Amino acid sequence: MPTSAPLTLYGESFWASPYVFSVFVALREKQLPFAVAEISLAKREQHDAAYRDRALTGKVPALAHGDFWLSESSAIVEYLDDVFPAPAHPRVLPAEPMARARARQVMAWIRSDLLALREERPTTTMFYERATTPLSPAGAAAAATLIRVAEAIVPDTSPHLFGAWTIADADLTFMLHRLILNDHPVPARVAEYARAQWQRPSVQEWVARKRVALEPY
Ligand SMILES: N[C@@H](CCC(=O)N[C@@H](CS)C(=O)NCC(=O)O)C(=O)O
Predict the structure, then answer these.
(1) Tell me: the pLDDT tens digits for 167-184?
(2) How far, in Å, CA of 10 to CA of 23, rounded?
(3) What percent of the chain has pLDDT over 70?
């Protein structure tokens, strides 16, 4: 695949998916030109054979690079760093192996744990109406775990987890904003880290996006 082949990010119409967010930010940070195609989850377009058979999983995001299709957001992020390497394209994962492993750990954990928090503070409460019900004991426990881990890994002396910005900063910040935007108390140092990360231009481009009215999906 020539690296100059066109890139298309398949996202969803409400611009609320944390996984599409991660790939969108990675593409922007790598300064790659790309098109966006919106799949309507409300119309269940992710299950249309034309999309599903290429994306394999029938989920968003998928990235098409020419005729090569890839889904799973963290696989896409790693592909982008492999195929569009530094210094021509800024890295989105740390260069140093232990830091890179830690970044992947944070990303895998965010994608696989904290289910109650993801369910009770869905991303629609970040970009549409705020949550109206308190967290259940399971949701509160997940929030406490997120805060404990963030307190352990957010450094005192740097605005980023690994010296320079990486996509793990964006993913952790997105997860923390499920709490922050819904007025859940977050310790000052972690809140300050997340609020500063939220101002990053690639992140703000996503946040400030004009969104269509929310439909059930
Ligand atoms: N592990 C996947 C998760 C992707 C995912 O769950 N995407 C959701 C949108 S946030 C989706 O496509 N849902 C539609 C469905 O499951 O039918 C990734 O990291 O890309």
Answers:
(1) 999 999 999 999 999 999
(2) 10
(3) 100
> Cα of 70 to ligand 1 centre, how many Å?
13
Judge whether residue 1 has pLDDT over 70: no
Q: Is the beta carbon of 59 within 6 A of some atom in ligand 1?
A: yes
Q: What crossing angle do the helices spanning 188-198 and 137-153 adopt, rounded to 10°?
A: 80
User: pTM here?
Assistant: 0.98
Asked if 199 contacts 139 with a C-beta cutoff of 8 angstroms, the reply is no
Rounded to the nearest whole angstrom, what is the distance from the C-alpha of residue 216 to the centroid of ligand 1?
Answer: 15
Contact in structure between 84 and 110 (CB atoms under 8 Å)? no
User: Using one digit for the tens of pLDDT, what is the confidence trace for 26-77?
Assistant: 999 999 999 999 999 999 999 999 999 999 999 999 999 999 999 999 999 9
> 61: cis peptide before it, omega within 30°?
yes
Q: Which candidate, 98, 207, 81, 208, places its Cα nearest to that of 161?
A: 98
Edge-to-edge strands, sheet with 62-65: 35-39, 7-12, 62-65, 68-71
Instruction: Indicate whether residue 46 lines ligand 1 (CB < 6 A).
Output: yes
How far is the CA of 102 from the CAs of 41, 42, 97, 153, 204, in angstroms? Answer: 32, 35, 9, 10, 25
CB-CB neighbours of 200 under 10 Å: 19
